Write the structure tokens for this entry.
Amino acid sequence: MPECQNCGSHVTDAYARVFTPDDVTSPRACPSCETVTRDRNGIREKRT
């Protein structure tokens, strides 16, 4: 099962397939990440 590169949480194969580029096996950020978020240009620090 793939893991998030940022926080180490397990993600589903379907999540990894949808939210990672074709040449990457693990997402850079996931819904469990508390300090970063995804946007159209990649990942960024949350603005809180």
